[in-house]
Amino acid sequence: MNAPVKAVLPFIDLQAQYRALKTDIDARIQRVLDHGQYIMGPEVKELEQELASRVGVAHCVTVSSGTEALLIALMSLDIQPGDEVITTPFTFAATAEVIALVGAVPVFVDIQPDTCNIDPACIERAITPRTRAIMPVSLYGQVADMDEINAIAVRNGLSVIEDAAQSFGASYKGRKSGGLSTWGATSFFPSKPLGCYGDGGAMFTEDTALAQAAREIRVHGQSQRYTHTRLGVGGRMDTLQCAIVLAKLERFDWEIEQRLAIGERYQLALKDMPVQRLAVRDDRNCVWAQFTVLLADAAQRDAVQAKLNSQGVPTAIHYPRPMHLQPAYQQYAPKWALQHSERAANRVISLPMSPDLNPAQQDVVIECLRRALTAS
Ligand SMILES: Cc1ncc(COP(=O)(O)O)c(C=O)c1O
Asked: Does the pLDDT of residue 2 top 80, yes or no?
């Protein structure tokens, strides 16, 4: 087999997606250019209604990014300096960052080694009188153990914010990621399962008062024009980005089916290889925002990554260092061990994944991985 060429095997193929949706996306953009309501135009409400119905909740509030969605969720719950929010250290920085930004303390607890999602068994032990919320992350596109987490929250009077940045479209016991707790927060960063062409995000809740608070916070805390009833941020999502997401929804169900099928095909092909595949629980699916596997250790991971990259197979590490070992977050390192998070950070590697990855391209990745593993 010839070595693949980098240009034909992107890590995520956003151009192919645009080519497939060009007519709809261009028409949607043109409509915004024609009406000229670039801020809070009609597409904002249209998208919010459409997404609320897809997630199965009463309220959707679009915001300027996934990070802002998490931040506004915390602000709407009035999380105060000194409050504690329990979360996972094995995530993108935004999750812990927003907790620290409101002056609260991110309390890191360990993950399950087979799913890499937060371990509910570790949460209850970390609760103190100052705990206000739990912020699980539905990592790689698989929903965390939300029923267990919600039960802990109810027992202890806490709120739950699901960081669903990577899991929009995922199912959990017949329900949708984002609609499973006090707040669900997702990201429309271009590479996410539902992406826009810049920054964007959305928040989901059943709670009318919280939704109203979030709508105010995203426009500098205004309850009416120039009446600032609370502290807020500049957190609106552009009309143009909402229009692009609306166009992308046209084939989103197909994209999710593709993600599931491509993920399944990877999982099957990797069955006989010396890699640890992520466990996907029977009662949910994984929409594979990243298709990630675990290798033996950091040395093997680095060798395999170098080999794949040299063969034109792009890879990524999600994530190389858990939050409690990051310079800005070491102050939040807990007194208990976070061994599974630390081990996972040394072992994970993500392979090319997007709905437009075709079987021939996927076979190239699989074959190159097989060879890299034999050589490592
Ligand atoms: C788990 C997680 N949380 C939060 C975010 C932040 O989203 P955004 O980049 O839209 O601010 C991301 C995206 O990178 C993410 O992967």
From this structure: no
